[in-house]
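input
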Amino acid sequence: MTRTTDHTVPDRHGQNLYTTDGELLRLLPLYLDARLLAHMQPHFERLGALAGGPLDELAHLADRNPPTLSVRTRTGLDEQRVIKHPAYVEMERLALSEFGLAAMSHREDTLGWQGKMPPVVKYVLTYLFVQAEFGLCCPVSMTDSLARTLRKFGSPELVARFLPRFQSLDFDTLAQGAMFMTEQAAGSDIAATATRARQDDAGQWRLDGDKWFCSNPDADFAMVLARPDGAPAGMKGVSLFLLPRRLDDGSLNHYRIVRLKDKLGTRSMASGEIRLEGAVAYLVGEAGRGFQQMADMVNNSRLSNGVRAAGLMRRAVAEAEFVASERRAFGRRLDQMPLMQRQLQKLRLPAEQARSMVFQTAMALARNDGGDASAYPLLRILTPLIKFRACRDARKVTGDAMEVRGGCGYIEEWTDPRLVRDAHLGSIWEGTSNIVALDVIRAVQRENSLPALQAHFGALLAEAEIAPGFAAALRGAMERAVALALRAAQDGGDVLARQAASALYHCASAIAMAWEGARAGSAQRVQWAQAVLLHRVLPRDPLSADVVPADWNS
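output
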């Protein structure tokens, strides 16, 4: 009889996802001030331990027990509420209250640090959290993004009245946010928005209409796009409104959650359909500029989506690496076999590209929010680039990583199926791949973002002490990618949008990785940058072995 200990199935559960991530530990000193990094170290370590164990268990429970909709109280009152599993509520407490993931960008003190936290800190924490739980990170991002949009465009009275609830870390009083934008007929075509906004006799705005896909439907507040009576057709007639869940007297606002969605992934978090029936709302910013103002919220959510995709890939790759290092077959560990080594390398590349682009985009966001006008066109193009490419890569990486675990990887007791299901969300929400690739081209056309992109990554390349031949190859590839993007920005060039977006992303990430490798003394990271250029940018013969050019290493 064979003992079970003779054939142990490798299980990584209980590992600290921060302290076991050597690349993250090497990169953080490049992007965070030493004093802040020292302050955040115990918080990163604590969240890494939670994500590798207790938080992962909560996420599994919440995924297996999705929320339900209660439409009436037991006494017959029409009081709708989304009933969440206790595991999900505990994750809400950890994310929103204990770690302050949604509030930290809007506070002067978080996690014991006095002053504004730079975006890098928030995204590193998100990167760790999402490796255990993806679904909740959507409401967290929307809450953060709503507060940002409210601060940026809301009247002083509106900001003073509602922002404090988004700055709160008290779990019983803090507010969650959402955005109700999608309609059945309109979809991504915001100009076709049909939801109506009218003013009653007291001058209060009222909203009527249906919103088709609303995540976090019972949020305390939502940003809503609607067309005021008498407004022109098209985009110029759409305005932005803040919709409270409850009115001043504590009663529910005049809208209903019609039903909850039965989704492929993010099953822990509720998404629903909303019917607005004269709902009280507040105009945000200038009438007729709703889409431009909502775009700020959407772009912030798109960046968060890219961060989440990077985190999913990291978790998937780390699981595959662990299995390959622990599992033995045919007398050897899996990671000693050349074909498995090649497979793992193909998984690591997109995961590490996304990690580098998270840091680069977060730094651009910090510069932009700090008043550096030159950072805006860079941020404007990096955001859709990471949303487009990292989210698409996550779908393949999570699927291929699942294969490394073999048959167990297909079983819902393990994380792999949940990672695969959740990974498909990124390419759909906040804009499908086509929409976001076209947004890259809009950044080229309207914000003149290509010179900013070239200047930034050209400066990184100039700082990177790498072989001249490799530096020249990176520079030449970026020049060709820029030329392709310029062609895509011309009349009739839309068909090239996805190709151009991928090219810009791969070149930018390869340069960033080469810079990081040179600065951190990581030959491995420079080699990954070479592999990105070789496999994802330059032409290659599929019938020949891959060879790194000799002058890339001398």
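quick obs: The first strand starts at residue 68 and ends at 70.
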